[in-house]
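re: that chain from earlier
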Amino acid sequence: MSTTRRWWAAHGWDVVSVGIILLAFAIPLRGLMRFQGPPMEEGFMLTFPQEVLRGSVPNKDFLHLYGPGSLWALAGTYELFGTSLATERIFGLGQHLVFVFGVFAIARRWGRVLGLVCALTSLLIVVPPAGLTALAWNGGLAFAVWSIWFATRRVPPSLALAPAPGDPDGPDADADVVEDPPAVRRGLVVAGLLGGFGLLFRPDLVVALTLGLAAAVWPFVWRRWRPLVTGAVLGVSPILIHLVMAGPAAAFDGMVLDPVFRLRPGRHLPVPPSWDELDGWFQKASGLRTLGWPFPAPELSHQVAMWFWATVLTAFFVAGVGIWAVRKAPGDRRARTLRAVGLLGVGMLSQALQRPDTTHLAWVSCVPMALVPVAIAEVFRHRAPAPRRVRLPVAIAPVVVILVAVIPHFTLRSWVDLSGQSFGRNVFGYPVNNEGRNFYLGSPEVADAANALAADLRARSRPSERLFVGPMDLRRTPYSDASFYFLFPDLVPATYYIEMDPGIADAEDSGLADEVASADWLILSNVWTNWTEPNESDRLGPDTPNQVVRDEFCRVGDYGSTPAGEPWFSLYERCG
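^ sequence. v structure.
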């Protein structure tokens, strides 16, 4: 047999699996590239790196609730390829690719078919809710899964030699004196390094990564933990640069106090989610887009509620099977991998508990729910040996049922919809343009109004003037059309609150009124006026910013008309 044939016999089906995963990304790609993005989240992932390139510092010059890593990476990408929606979404696509192939690499240890199924499941869960938006969580999660893969790539000899728990015989006494080979130590250094990079993107992954990486090398032996900790310290060490640039107090305020304490009252949603109604604003909005589905499916609110419970149950199921499997076979690589990635999923549950909307549920369930097939395969392997023709269907069936019949609207059906949009069917996304920059909104009326406003602002403004974007009533700041800052790069953001959050931007001591007063131009929006969620986002802050608008600014024009007869947007300039 020739070398090529031998290679294909060994790796051919892996190549086919990779090709299928790439095809699953490629089919909806055109639809994803021109689909409506979340106006604030994608807007600030375009604007924040733009401001970093301008010399601004996160937490010091603008509100940023996560680590600086994603902004640094995006700023470097924009510097090389230009700041554009296409560049940002291709970066987001890259994050998704790295994550999904990380899931494939982990699940591949149970076979090619299960690896492919788990990877496709993770893709269908994580991509549709937020599209290709280059969110920091997606990058942090990609680093996290590859960190687990490297940490479990090889089993240290001391673990392979260890007897089963409770066995009084065996080489327990001598296990710790077996020196780990260089390949094991290098793998642990890389695992720690990738974990540290993940924390640079999302510091709140610290619990999940600590649980996952500790499970990968447990029991505790310092000479084994040393390379892991060394790599993690090296990976996260650039945070020191950020602490120096922003100042320790501002960094702690922006990355800890704001997201953990100040943000929660205005963003928290009921746990568990309501059964008879949708709690999240964007889930309510997505329900307005009616698309066919050939199979029976629950009501949207029922899907969100079941998704929450499925996320919790699958996280503990995968972790529990992993812990049980390690007790059965302490030195087995697959068992230790499942325990590590299972505890990673358990550590991420805080995301689902703090705000169980579809985006946060997708962020968590894309790991444990996707790995349910390998957990079932592990049960078969240790407890109930069965023919492959039985094992595979039983292992795969739960995720098929979940995607087809339990939560199709937010996963498989959305993927089918986006795929259709790639070929011109039910296209959803209407462009707003300014001098070669574009952004997509979900309403043609709102997009027309935004384009008319952009034309007027472009004609009247001058470079380096200051722009403020906010809601029409500045006593409530539930959301922001931050994409306007990206569309007008020659104008300087006049506010720390490019990202606007209830309880933060509209707080008594936020300084919002002074920032409004510092602006040359105001864009005020009614798009989010009817924002309703079962939390404190409807609480009114001080009226002082509105008074500044009334006293110091003149209306240039109103654009579009809401169903209530109010303008979608209003443009103001400083009087005189």
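The CA atoms of residues 212 and 344 lie 4 Å apart.
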